Amino acid sequence: MVSIPLNVAVIGAGMSCQVFHAPLIQALPEQFKLHTVLERRATPEKSVAREKYGSGIKVVNTIEEVVKDAEVDVVVITTSNESHFSLARTALNAGKHVVVEKPLTPTSTEALQLATLAKDKGLVLATYQNRRWDSDFLTVRELIEQGKLGEVVEFESHFDRFRPVPKGGWRESAGEARGVLYDLGSHLIDQALVLFGSPQSVTGFVQNSRQAGDLSVDDSFTVHLHYPPTTAPVSRNLPLTVTLRASVLSLLTPPLRYIVKGTAGSFVKHYLDVQEGQSKEGIAPTADGFGVEPEDARGFLTTLQDGKEVTSRVTSKAGVYLDFYRNVADAITGKAPLAVTPESAAQTIKIIELAAASSKEGRTLLVA
After folding, report:
1. In this predicted structure, what is the pLDDT of residue 190?
2. Contact 100, 128 (CB under 8 A)
């Protein structure tokens, strides 16, 4: 019998912990308790985590201290991508449920190995694909599911920024699973797979478009996912092309988020979800207005009415990252299936691998 609240240990005390994970964990006191933070450089005299979260939490320096603690139920891994596999494997082997920042692992093979391990041990292994709960994604998903656009034939999704000078940090340094394709591509690909399933083939264009920093580390990509007409697993009468883009040299105002075209209408959306920015400002996930977009960020829906084009603004659904952790708690306690399964995370990584290989080889690759 699983007792709640579940005691959580967060591995890493940096931005991911402070902006995405700890605020959500602390906002759900009936499901979770922030119990431990692994802060490698912490000392008894000085600790970022202790200063931020108070003396009531444990601060440790090693993964061994975390997994040997019988009070810890869930381990949340927020460290750099190349460390995910070994840390998750260690935690699962110690009998802990695990949440891992996206991408789950550097390779799809490793992700499937962890999926098997979690299944064999009867443990939950979730990947933090929080942008399934973005305001804009929830809105476009509802429009598609309600049939407002008819059958979708073109789907374009952007995560663009203007950063002509590299910021530095591990994401922009050489290493395994570094670069924007693993970083932002994990989000855009996951969202596309949620909406449309796995494609037949992938074409990728992945590059260092600034020609700055380590040139082996990509800072921009365009990925095309190709879906032919099919009857399974979903019926699709027309071919569908999904285009996913992340540009680091996009000085476009307002920033484009979606262009979706279907047989009955189109939808155009600008601006990114507000939850990350609100969390950085210290706004609690339970505060009024958290996840709610301003009116001028609403998207435009164009349909035919009596043979005439009619365009209207669509009120965005509220973004709700809290639902990710609510689902994790429900999955651990047996109340609901896990939303972001390790198998789905492995498929996202597989598409990343194919997009990178496609770009390198200069050809479209089939998805096995």
Report:
1. 98
2. yes
Is residue 186 within 8 A of residue 352, CB to CB? The reply is: yes
Bridge partners, 38 (sequence order): 11, 60
User: Looking at residue 204, what DSSP letter applies?
Assistant: E
> Could you identify the residue written with the tokens 């498929």?
347
Task: Write down how long the chain is.
Answer: 368
Tokens of 86: 């070994």
Query: What is the residue whose two structure tokens read 């494997």?
Result: 89
Burial zone of 110 (CB within 10 Å; 0-12 exposed, 13-18 middle, 19+ buried): buried
Residue 340 per-residue DSSP state: S
Burial class (CB in 10 A: 0-12, 13-18, 19+), 333: middle
Burial class of residue 14 (count of CB atoms within 10 Å of its CB; 0-12, 13-18, 19+): middle
Which is nearest to 176 in space by CA: 122, 239, 106, 113? 106
Could you give phi then psi for residue 234, rounded to 5 degrees? -130, 155
Q: How far apart are CA 35 and CA 18, in angstroms?
A: 14
Q: What does the DSSP 8-state code read for residue 236?
A: B
Taking the CA atoms of 301, 303, 309 and 310 in sequence, report the sign of the dihedral they define: negative
Running along the chain, 368 residues long, what does each successive block of 10 average in pLDDT? 91 96 97 97 94 93 98 97 97 98 98 98 98 98 97 98 88 87 97 97 97 92 96 86 97 96 98 96 96 96 94 97 98 98 98 98 96
Distance in angstroms (rounded) separating the CA atoms of residues 183 and 273 = 17
Which residue, among 27, 90, 24, 34, has the nearest Cα to 59 in the 3D structure? 34
pTM > 0.90: yes
Scanning the chain, the segments in alpha helix (DSSP H) are: 15, 22-26, 48-53, 63-67, 84-93, 108-121, 135-145, 180-183, 185-196, 275-280, 322-332, 342-361
Structure tokens given for 265: 């209408």
Using CA atoms, how far apart are residues 61 and 255, in angstroms rounded to an integer?
41
The span from the CA of 311 to the CA of 314, in Å, is 10
